[in-house]
TrEMBL record:
Keywords: Flavoprotein, FMN, Oxidoreductase, Pyridoxine biosynthesis. Catalyzes the oxidation of either pyridoxine 5'-phosphate (PNP) or pyridoxamine 5'-phosphate (PMP) into pyridoxal 5'-phosphate (PLP). The gene is pdxH. It is an enzyme of class 1 (oxidoreductase). Gene3D superfamilies: Electron Transport, Fmn-binding Protein, Chain A. Homodimer. NCBIfam families: pdxH, PRK05679.1. Substrate binds at R8, R9, D10, Y11, K67, Y124, R128, S132, R192, L193, H194. This is Pyridoxine/pyridoxamine 5'-phosphate oxidase. One of its GO terms (biological process) is pyridoxine biosynthetic process. Belongs to the pyridoxamine 5'-phosphate oxidase family. Its EC number is 1.4.3.5. FMN binds at residues 62-67, 77-78, 83-84, 106, 141-142, 186, 196. Residues 173-214 form the Pyridoxine 5'-phosphate oxidase dimerisation C-terminal domain.
Length: 214
């Protein structure tokens, strides 16, 4: 096995103090997202890990792309018959995680996922590149398949079938809004003394900010 014990680096790009933080976590996220986009990261700055759990508490996670956000929450699209879709139906508590590691930053968001309206889903679906629309129609996400060749054959058949037609939105394809109740902003620090701040939504609907030990 590869020896990983001595693989490490120090974090020296910046510090995060209470005075740096905006009172509104959505505005703080917007600031960091804009900076991540401006950084022109090699990886997609809109990529986020979506963690879900079954009704029995068995967790799973995967990376998807954030497609929009505002003060209502964070939106992504997927096949609702996928593992994550089935788990959200059983247990809507969901966690999102952004890893902007070249900036030595992370953001974690906990909340509750709810399905988007069909109208909104269809509007976004038809705004996607046609090849992506056909791919969504061709794939029964998370289901077993005998080979990649079978999937590619199905994709090519549908691509030809809908070459001059509008691709129908798959019935099982949809989107989710994750409404947050907690944010955590992490800035790497020297000697592993990282700066961490949580925003917790209180009963009074205000966000309470707390510094956390690293």
């Amino acid at each position: 096995m590869t020896d990983l014990h001595n693989i490490r680096r120090d974090y020296q790009r910046g510090r995060l103090s209470r005075a740096d933080l905006l009172a509104d976590p959505f505005q703080q996220f917007e600031l960091w997202m804009r900076q991540a986009l401006a950084e022109k990261l090699n990886s997609d700055p809109t990529a986020m890990t979506v963690a879900t759990a079954s009704k029995d508490g068995i967790p799973s996670q995967r990376v998807v792309l954030l497609k929009s956000y505002d003060h209502n929450g964070f939106v992504f699209y997927t096949n609702q018959h996928s593992r994550k879709g089935k788990e959200i139906a059983e247990n809507p508590r969901t966690s999102l995680h952004f890893a902007w590691l070249t900036m030595e930053r992370q953001v974690a968001i906990d909340g509750v996922a709810s399905a988007l309206s069909r109208e909104r889903v269809e509007q976004y679906f038809h705004a996607r590149p046609k090849a992506s629309q056909v791919a969504a129609l061709a794939s029964s996400q998370s289901q077993a398949i005998d080979s990649r060749a079978t999937l590619e054959q199905r994709y090519q058949q549908l691509l030809e079938q809908y070459a001059e037609q509008q691709v129908p939105v798959p019935e099982q394809w949809g989107g989710y809004l994750v409404t947050p109740n907690r944010f955590e902003f992490w800035q790497g620090g020297e000697h592993r003394l990282h700066d961490r701040f949580s925003y917790q939504l209180a009963a009074d609907k205000h966000w309470h900010i707390t510094r956390l030990q690293p």
